[in-house]
Amino acid sequence: MTKKAKVLTLSLILALLMSAGSVLAKEPIDVGSKNFTEQLILGKMLVIYLDHHGYDVVDRTGLSGTQATRTALESGEIDVYWEYTGTAWLVALKHDQAITDSQLVYNKVKAEDAQKNDLIWLDMAKFNNTYTLMMRRDEAEKLGIKTLSDLAAHVRKNPKAIKFGTDHEFYARPDGFPALEKLYNFRFDRGNVIIMDAGLTYKALRDGQVDVSMGFATDGRIAAFDLVNMIDDKKFFPVYNPAPVVRKEILDQYPELADLLNKIGPKLDTETMTRLNYEVDIEGKTPEEVAENFLKEAGLI
Amino acid sequence: MSEVATTLTTKQMNRRISFKSFGEFALRWLLVPLILIGAGTGFAVYIITHTTDFIVKDFLTYDRLIAAGLEHIKLVLVSSFLAIAFSLPMGIIISRPRFKRLEKWVVGITNVGQTVPSIAILGLFMGFFGLGFKTAIFALWLYALLPILRNTLAGIRSVNPGIIQAAHGMGMHPMRILFKIELPLALKVIMGGIRTAVVINVGTAALATFIGAGGFGDLIVTGLKLSRMEILLTGAVSTALLAILADYLLSHVEAKLISYGD
Question: pLDDT tens, B134-149?
Fold first, then answer.
């Protein structure tokens, strides 16, 4: 054989092998997540769980915010991640009126995503990661503030006395800050509202740079920094549960996947999730080991 | 008669000249800034009046835009001013032969400041300066140091040593040599450094929103978090136009300063 012919045969064989490979092997499952503690734990859970059950998994957790993660799912760069119903409704599906009923908003996003985007919402987890307003325990006790109504009354009397820390999303969400002020009928002085990164609100509150902060109810730092959640006595904060959202294509390839993944959610209640977050944020464990320990304890692997 | 006529023409000429230079002044200093500000305002007004999304409507108000703009400008002005006030004298000092050994330390330290990601600096110094303005100013200041310092040094070093020797030979005092020869000749390079620093600062100041210091970053990050491109774009376009505006104004300051030297 001439040199040219050799190269040609070789590349032909290679091309054949490659095309055969792509037909035979099933697509690996790409697991994504956003880049904060709870999402990292949930993402790693999927990675370890699926890997344990013999799937070919690609770990792409810790992508970025809602926008990036959701875009990755829609474009097929990832195949599954945990999303919160309320966030999907407002941010991903771009509705501008909030629905605060937990089951209703789940049904709505599930229907719309299945119809429009070929994305399937599996069962919701039991825990809900809703927003909360927090204060330092000592100051809350000193001022006698236990509920959001107490806080509203205090702010009405001394509008300039209280500094409020919030992240960008809560500040602008229609089911966030503006609606909260409306329902409880008070208004923070705008110069006293400090918008910052979501991860900083706990620390800023602990260090006394703000007096009230928004946070997430399941965050481990609330207990660790001796902060208290104010009681939402008018039931303002909507309950948004997370659920794994999977691309339909992948479910068609692996029909048994839905049942398998639906086993995780029921084991995750609010206390458990708070504890898992605490282990990462405060005890300094990695999201990976926390996820693995949980799966073992829960008898899932 | 002829005397009067001459005076008149001179007067007229003076008037013409001053008018012409005022027209030129307006054209040079005001036209481009007005176009830039007009473009930004037009963009924002278009978005605000054409959006149908309630989230965008509630968040994107004229009050907020103005407040964010003022915060952004204040961050850039204060940090750039402080950076010039530090780097320019420092650059001059270490360009003197007897302080040459300081150079590697000073440049090294400002270099390190430049290599740490800006977001990390914000996080690191939040512990010292707290949330908001002071931390943001510190981080922006640190970022602006290197370009100004480097260019001050490079500018002074680029002056032909022959000229300085000649000045020495004429018996000029070193201070006089610095102010009459070295700095004027280095001016273009120094101003280049200042322009770089200010333009970088306009962009970096958008990160100040993460530590509660406001600015156009408020719009950019909110738009990103809520996937509302209208909010994001308004913030991004405003930041970009502000950077162009700052560079334009500084280029004129530079031209003005250099023409004084002539």
Answer: 999 999 999 899 999 9
Claim to verify: residue A24 and residue A52 sit in the same structural domain: yes
What CATH number is given to the structural domain containing A56? Answer: 3.40.190.10
Domain count for chain A, please give it. 2
pLDDT class of A292 with cuts at 50, 70, 90: very high
B226-242 pLDDT, tens digit each: 889 999 999 999 999 99
Residue span of the structural domain in which A218 resides:
131-229
Mutation choice for A interface testing from B219, B221, B226 by most A CBs within 10 A:
B226
pTM score of the predicted model: 0.80
| Pairs across A and B, CB distance < 8 A | 72
Mutate to test the interface with A, among B58, B60, B128, B225 (most CBs of A within 10 A): B225
Whether residues A264 and A117 share a domain: the answer is yes
CA–CA separation, B84 vs B148, rounded Å? Answer: 7
- Of A259-273, B13-27, B113-127, which has the strongest mean pLDDT? A259-273
Same domain, A20 and A124: yes
DSSP state of A35: S
* Domain edge (last residue) among A229, A250, A274: A229
Q: At what angle do helices B133-157 and B183-204 cross, to 10 degrees?
A: 150
| Selected residues 173-212 of chain A with any CB under 8 Å from a CB in chain B | 173-174, 178, 194-197, 200, 204, 207, 209-210
